[in-house]
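Lab notebook page, bench 4
Experiment: in silico fold of construct C2
Operator: M.H.
Input chain length: 97 residues
Purpose: comparison with the prior construct
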Amino acid sequence: MSMLVVVTENVPPRLRGRLAVWLLEVRAGVYIGDTSRRIREMIWEQINALAEQGNVVMAWATNTESGFDFQTYGSNRRMPVDWDGLRLVSFLPVENQ
């Protein structure tokens, strides 16, 4: 079991309801819980199936240099990058409007 955090933006209500089955929604779109790897992978499958045009980041505690890992779904200015085995976040430039 490890700590899991899921942050959602602009996802359909059915995904939010599905996440609330396994995790506690502590703020709008922010879910936390203590899950097994199997449950975490099943939650990620649900995110991929139901998030539509929204975006999601899932982070969990693990035995790495940083003590956590994460993955993302959907479009966002923040993009994960691997830097010599360390997971970091790169920011894309703001689009001119």
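Observations: Strands lie at 2-9, 24-27, 30-35, 55-61, 68-73, 78-83, 86-91. The chain has one domain: 2-91.
Next step: discuss at group meeting.
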